UniProtKB/TrEMBL annotation:
Alphabetical list of SUPFAM superfamilies matching this protein: (Trans)glycosidases (SSF51445), beta-Galactosidase/glucuronidase domain (SSF49303), Galactose mutarotase-like (SSF74650), Galactose-binding domain-like (SSF49785)
EC number from the UniProt entry: 3.2.1.23
Record GO terms (molecular function): hydrolase activity
Residues of the signal peptide: 1-22
Family: Belongs to the glycosyl hydrolase 2 family.
Source organism of this protein record: Postechiella marina
Record's protein name: beta-galactosidase
Record note on quaternary structure: Monomer.
Domain called Glycoside hydrolase family 2 catalytic: residue spans: 295-419
Enzyme class: hydrolase
Taxonomic lineage: Bacteria, Pseudomonadati, Bacteroidota, Flavobacteriia, Flavobacteriales
Pfam families the record matches: Bgal_small_N, Glyco_hydro_2, Glyco_hydro_2_C, Glyco_hydro_2_N
Needed cofactors: Ca(2+)
Keyword match Hydrolase: yes
Stretches assigned to the Beta galactosidase small chain/ domain: 724-871
Amino acid sequence: MKTITKLALFTLVICLFQNIQAQTRTEIKYLSGTDKDHTVAWDFYCSDGMNSKKWTKIGVPSCWELQGFGNYNYGRDYKVKKEYHDEHGLYKHKFNVPANWKNNEVKIVFEGVMTDCEVKINGKLAGEIHQGAFYEFKYAVSKLLKYGEENLLEVKVNKMSANKSINSAERNTDFWIFGGIFRPVYLEILPKQFIERVAIDAQANGNIKADIFTASKKASSVKAKLLNLNGELVQELTNISIENKEGKISLSTQANNIKTWNPESPNLYQLQIDLLDKKGNQLHSLTKRIGFRTVEIRESDGIYVNGQQIKFKGINHHSFYPESGRTTSKALSIEHVKMIKDMNMNAVRMSHYPPDTHFLEACDSLGLFVLDELCTWHTPYLDTKVGKKLIKELIVRDVNHPSIVIWDNGNETGWNTELDDEFAKWDIQKREVIHPWGIFRKTNTFHYLPYHTFANDGYAKDKIYFPTEFLHGLYDGGHGAGIEEYWERMYSDHMSAGGFLWVFADEAVVRTDKNGVLDADGNHAPDGIVGPYGEKEGSYFTVKEVWSPIHIKKRYIREGFNGMFKVENRYHFTNLDACTMRAKWVKFDGPKGSAEEQVISESLVKLPSIAPEHKGKFHVNLPQNWTDADALYLTATDQHGMELFTWSYPVKLPKAYNKNKIIYSGNAEITTSTDDSQINVSTKDLELTFSAKTGLIEKVVKNGVLIPLSNGPILLDSKNEVDHVSVTNSKEKVEIKALMKAKRKYWDWEDNDQMIQEYLKWTIHSNGLVDLNVGMRSTRKTTGFKGVTFSFPEKEVAGMKWLGDGPYRVWRNRMKGTKLKVWENDYNNTITGQSGYVYPEFKGYFSSLYWAKIRGNNNNGFSVYNHNTHTFLRMLTPDKPTEALRGSDDTKWPSGDISFVKNISPIGTKFKEIGEMGPTSNKEMIFGNDDEMIKIDLTFDF
């Protein structure tokens, strides 16, 4: 009996202790859902547009347009329509408040409302109307609540602000305009004596400073401890220096043996701060996640983190999802940050407004530098008073994130310079402020400069060059196109701090007023390196290779290869030997075989100890049978297990690879008939028709079914006319040769150094294989195409399987990011960024062709083997996007439908024509001497 009494007493004490502890912590109760995937239905009334003028239900948080209410607006509509839709929404929600909350302080928090927000609790105003769409705000509502009863929350939201300055800064913009309570709403339940907020500065040397803001009259001091992310004690922080001023307690202390935060090793801790009364009793306890790091912008030098100069490899990012607009989720934030990291980026710019808190938390934990931005586009908050209020809300919410290294005062002339010094008033870390697209203080962030002028040009050569947008990804241009040349110049320039691409995702929104179509507002919003739902475009992988921190110098495997590769460590904080690498030697099947490669040898590569920003070499062990391989793969993995990139190196060139794949044996009868216009050749189940005047193929019939390959090979970039066509017959084959009129002859170095005319030659073998050999003159430089082309109606193409670089198409200025292997794509008609959104795109240029099998619709298609190095397959012609600007679709295509060419087109960007983007974006291509011969050698298997 005594034992039971003691146990009961012990349990009571524990419960009381836990209750006391709970009362000193902040409790959160959501009134809305937590994200786009978890909403709570509130009563809702929309004043105009879809489903308006009636009370119904809406999920909160959300943008009301995406829920089928109101009207859609893109921010640039004002330039055309001179006005915006201006509906408002009324919300009602009932919630219960426990009676015991009467002993607490209660606040209601809105993480984001677009745009003007009036809040009432039980019919009474909670405070002044909040203005500004992307900022967290809160009201103290303890005196408005009915404890132990049901309470009524009423919210009125105006899509457009009553403040013209806010409309011009946030609404007249280059992004979609939405209305609604688009981020969560919750109650904060605090002890009566509470910490209002905490601002922390944790430096790389372990020094910690914190400002603890409180209105408590009982607060006397604070204590602090450092915890790991599991809440386990790392260090009791002693020797705390405290300064107590009215409304604020400042502390300074030192943490020992800490690990610093950087994007490569994003080490995080928790700082627990306890507010104490005079007797040392705990009044309130807060825990904030921190990272130890030091940020410096050194004038006429660079941007440094933890003493290391940084090259920012970044992208701009909006909070956006097609089906929910600006309402996102923690899961989506993590997915996006992981994709950004997967592209080997180390930075993200919050264009053009502060993001959800969970996005910043993902940047903290996964490791990205962040530029956090006050929301403006081209027009600043001219109302300085409201601008100051919004800067306060921005920094009070975001100040403790170690990922944030710079504040942006608006975007592209959207700077109220009276606000520049306002950031430091609220930031204990005193992070510096930049003007994106401007020359300001220590930085030149100018956007979209052409390659020949972009780095430190003009009078501001002493500024750190730091473009917050430098390649624009409209449709398939920009991003990967041109980035290698821009980046190499940036990387080698001490005064360059890197830069940011525009933008992460195509912002195509689901139009609930147009049967759910995806709408990117013409050419305004299809700028992403991924599609609306995260579909990876070709540039994604180009950037991944170019920005790989393991930078392998160009290398070809030829006779005498010794396995040695030159490498540069482009990490800022990580030794190369922290990464791993595997070498895989592989063989590929032909068109009739498997798409899977055969691994003949695989081994680890020992990466040497190379400090960041230093160079060295590594060696790949050569297995005894390495020359039997068709390719070598090198796959690098970082210290966290993430693949940096897989590089592929051909071991066999096409001629050697195809040598054993093509067998001409067979003794079927082959017959020929000719007249003045046609040459007809038949063998086995194949019937071929050629022009007797040009040598071009006119008709292919296999087993009585037409294969619609015709009108080729037309020699591109050649004005020579056919001189004569000859036919040579034998038992095993038929040769049809067309010689061009000999204006001059050219060296054929592969054929006994002879001087010969331009020609094309068909060889039809009795087993049905057909060889095509073309010799055409070279030129020192050309803006045309060198190669041959055929007709094959697009409607007859079902897909293709090929051995070559893939699976994505390439441009002349976007060759990286592919892998040599057997690929297979079904036909699609995706217009990058505009329609279809099926990637990889089927149509375009594909590099390093070995063979291709073209699948036909209602025909058997054909296979073709290529025997020459550096040959591109051109597969059909992509449809042009609408309203392509400048160079964003300034591309040339050969005549015909399927081509085999030695040079291809570059592509430009929204703001740059192709000639402005560096050497490989030039229209001209150098080939060699005028008296040399270019060879195209193919074998067709119909």
